[in-house]
Amino acid sequence: MMDKGGGEEVDPKQAEEEKERLEALAEQEAVRKAKHQIVENEREKERQRIRDKYGLKRKDEIEAEEKAQKERETVGRLGRTRSVSPDEEEEEEEGLMAQAEKTFGEFQQKVTTATESCVIC
Question: Which of 52, 82, 94, 109 is the most exposed, fewest CB within 10 Å of its CB?
């Protein structure tokens, strides 16, 4: 029997053997996956037992709680939350302190000027 490509002959016996081989590989893969799933389920049961024993939480539970906490903190905010590094936060605090001191100095100057110019008879 000639293939349409004209190159090689395809033996029906070899084609059947190849089909059976591929089916066997697929079956072995399915068995391997099932075995892996069973082992993973046993590991997860053991992990959960340890978490329960020591009062630990799963990473995804912790992340969900942190996300919920962030959402509670930002409820009603109009802008987006910005992430600030500790260095930037310190610089911002220093900038605010300098601005407050400058404003206080100006205010003190105005009060001094006002009290000097005010004369009570």
Answer: 82
**3-state helix/strand/coil string of 37-79:** HHHHHHHHHHHHHHHHHHCCCCHHHHHHHHHHHHHHHCCCCCC
Q: Measured between alpha carbons, how far is 72 from 76 in angstroms, rounded to an integer?
A: 9
Q: How is residue 72 written in tokens?
A: 């509670």
pLDDT tens-place string over residues 8-36: 677 889 999 999 999 999 999 999 999 99
Q: How far is CA 19 from CA 12, 14, 24, 119, 120, in A?
A: 10, 9, 9, 111, 113
Q: What tokens appear for 98 in the block?
A: 């300098």
Whole-angstrom CA distances from 109 to 15, 97, 100 are 100, 18, 14
* pLDDT tens profile 54-89: 988 888 888 888 888 888 877 766 666 566 666 676
